[in-house]
Amino acid sequence: AQSVTQPDIHITVSEGASLELRCNYSYGATPYLFWYVQSPGQGLQLLLKYFSGDTLVQGIKGFEAEFKRSQSSFNLRKPSVHWSDAAEYFCAVGAGWEYGNKLVFGAGTILRVKS
Amino acid sequence: ETGVTQSPTHLIKTRGQQVTLRCSSQSGHNTVSWYQQALGQGPQFIFQYYREEENGRGNFPPRFSGLQFPNYSSELNVNALELDDSALYLCASSLEHTGELFFGEGSRLTVL
Fold first, then answer.
1. What backbone torsions phi and psi does residue B95 show, to the nearest 5 degrees?
2. Which residues, including other chains, have CB under 8 Å from residue A58's CB and lie 6 or more apart?
3. Which residues of A touch B101 (CB under 8 A)?
């Protein structure tokens, strides 16, 4: 069965500082990996995804993530955080269409940005 | 391009009642999934519909049921509501054979 662990419940960074949000997954085959962002009272917005190929993927809003198979990780990074990045971030793993397209989400990491 | 829309945005029910939530998929998308997000948790997969049939189901009891219509819109029905059903219910649409989901803003259900 798939599972996702986001070890950090809350992270606080200063505006302009770099950011790394951790994500570890468990899945027997090559996973589909996603990062979503959720602002208060809103739905989920896709930041980036990894299906195959280059293990460093670029997303929207200046975010990137690196797939490391040996560490079962898919950490999200941003070189310089803006106050508008404050939100909750979810990592998710999917098995693909053949398995009902189900996504398994982590519990989320709340990002606070201090000025 | 019209995104995923859900209705109602908020509703309050009492224990034992029934609720229907609605979702219109993004233009061109033929697959709809439903997720439950309890407060402080990540979303949990309820089920997915493709070509008007259930195409995958998570660990939810049969009182959670759904429909997909020929125009690809969908309904989530929950019978015999329990207090623990209080949550944000998210609908997501996608194209068949792709893993990328596009989410709506959700319907927040409160059960008293």
1. -90, 145
2. A48, A64
3. 46, 101, 103
Which candidate, A10, A19, A16, places its Cα nearest to that of A76? A19
Tell me which chain A residue has its CA closest to the CA of residue B10: A41
Q: Do B43 and A96 touch (CB under 8 A)?
A: no
Q: If we measure between CA atoms, which residue out of A50, A56, A57, A52 comes closest to residue A33?
A: A50
Beta-bridge mates of residue A57: A65
CA angle B108, B34, A47 (to 5 degrees): 90
Per DSSP, the three-state class of A28 is coil
- B-chain residue closest to A108, CA distance: B42
CA distance B36 to B47: 10
pLDDT tens for chain B, residues 1 to 112: 568 999 999 999 999 999 999 999 988 888 999 999 999 899 999 999 988 999 889 999 999 999 999 989 999 999 999 999 999 999 999 887 677 889 999 999 999 9
Closest CA to A38 of B32, B108, B103: B103
- Positive or negative, the CA dihedral A69, A72, A73, A74 is positive
Centroid of chain to Cα B90:
5
Instruction: Give the Cα-Cα-Cα angle B94, B96, B99 (nearest 5 degrees).
Output: 60
Is the CB of residue B54 less than 8 Å from the CB of residue B33? Answer: no
Beta partners for B18? none
User: What are the distances in angstroms from CA B74 to CA A107, B23, B46, B49, B63?
Assistant: 26, 5, 13, 8, 16
